[in-house]
Amino acid sequence: MRERFLRYVQINTRSDESSTSCPSTPGQLTLLRTLMTELNELGLTDVSMDEYGYVMATIPATTEKRVPVIGFIAHVDTSPEMPGQDVQPIVHENYQGDDLVLPDDPSVVLRASEDPALAAHIGHDIVTASGLTLLGADDKAGVAEIMAAAEYLMLHPEIPHGTIRIGFTPDEEIGRGANHFDVGRFGAVCAYTLDGGGAGELEWESFAADAMTITFKGFNTHPGYAKGHMVNAVKLAAAFIARLPPDRLSPETTEGYEGYVHPYLLDASVDRTSVKLLIRDFSTAGLEEKEAMAERLAREVIADHKGASVEIRIAESYRNMREILEGYPEVIECAREAIRRSGLTPAERPIRGGTDGSRLSFMGLPTPNLFAGEHNFHSRLEWVAVQDMEKAVETIVHLCQVWEQRS
Ligand SMILES: [Zn+2]
Questions:
Q1: Radius of gyration of the chain from its Cα atoms, rounded to whole angstroms
Q2: What is the DSSP string of 259-273?
Q3: Do residues 167 and 180 lie in contact, with contact meaning Cβ atoms separated by under 8 Å?
Q4: Residue range 79-97, pLDDT digits in tens
Q5: How far is residue 73 from each of residues 141, 277, 324, measured CA to CA in Å?
Q6: Cα of 306 to ligand 1 centre, how many Å?
Q7: How far are the Cα atoms of 25, 26, 38, 285 from residue 48, in angstroms, in the given order?
Q8: Most buried residue, 23, 198, 259, 353, by most Cβ within 10 Å?
């Protein structure tokens, strides 16, 4: 599995928001084709790639029992926020707690004193990049773990399990991973993404998320002769932003179950200025409250200016997968049991973000997220421990058996 992982991370699969194709970048297709070849070599059946690059395959059942079909999913792309070219993975064998200086940029240093998760991995084999790029353990750790589990199950037909489906998807990091996922073709009653953090983590609650655009419309005229006429939309937007609470409801002041209203992009001119905001909460009602607050503040601003107006647009991004997963307690319970059988304690916490599972759950495929061992996502300090990846493989294999035993 280590060999697979080190090979996959060297393929540049950085996704690109500005691209309209799917996958958004050709490197993703390279990895997806490689995976197809390897799935065929391992003897899986129904190995296929659709027109959007989604790869699916089947591990045939080894039991006579009627067992629900379950699936495992990982995404092949890496974050567009960071360089993903020429990734040089380094394995720091039997890590002893010393500083890990990444050779291609010695200012990039992993210190156990600053990273409690790393401090907890003394004696493990830690994989990092070389200082210039991300590693891409998010989510090639998940990809390698699913491949390793598939290989293990194909080599051990004496292990009883039902039909297992496997899916590899593009463009998760740009929010499109579920766009073309054919839930019908996948044909599973539930799935697990392998795209989480430290060993034992199990996530089945995510943010609920909307994208809000507030456009202030002013009135432009020649600034030399503007007295009494001009209404400057740039200033309207600035006044709106100044009214947002300074000490709460922002990413920089919240954690745990707290949501936020986050202005992140301005398109500004005197005539019209748009403010783009991310709205986040753990409930749809909480989202609506925050949107109502933002709208009220915007209307207060224009109320003071004759000739100004405001236009508000809200687009749904995704919803808290808990709304769906609460209805499928066995999906979560089987995962807990598999984690325990791997000698770990399930660690359940809400994701302050979304996963492909947030969307897939609402598309009819209940999909919580399992740990893949990833740390420091989207950073040059990204790392993963080989031993955690082995635990993830073990958890997948146990999970297949738990479903069989409970059927
Ligand atoms: Zn990911």
A1: 24
A2: -EEEEEEEE--SSEE
A3: no
A4: 998 899 999 999 999 999 9
A5: 12, 30, 18
A6: 48
A7: 19, 18, 12, 41
A8: 23
Q: Average pLDDT of 171-200?
A: 95
pLDDT digits (tens, 9 = 90+) for 330-349: 999 999 999 999 999 999 98
Could you list the active site residues? 77, 172
CA distances from 203 to 187, 192, 336, 341 (A): 22, 10, 11, 18
**Closest by Cα among 54, 16, 12, 17 to 33:** 54
Pairing of strands 190-196, 70-75: parallel
Which tokens hold the place of 280? 């986040």
Within 13 Å of residue 387, how many CA atoms lie on the same side as its CB? 14
Residue 158, classed as helix, strand or coil, is coil
What single-letter DSSP state applies at residue 225?
G
Query: Which DSSP string do the residues of 338-381 spell out, in sequence order?
Result: HHHHTT---EE--BSS--HHHHHHHTT----EEE---BSTTSTT
Q: Is the dihedral of CA 91, 35, 403, 196 positive or negative?
A: positive
Cα–ligand 1 centroid distance for 74 (angstroms): 8
Digit-coded pLDDT (tens) for 376-396? 988 999 999 999 999 999 999
CA of 329 to the centre of ligand 1 (A): 24
d(CA 97, CA 58): 41
**Torsional sign, CA 225, 226, 229, 230:** positive
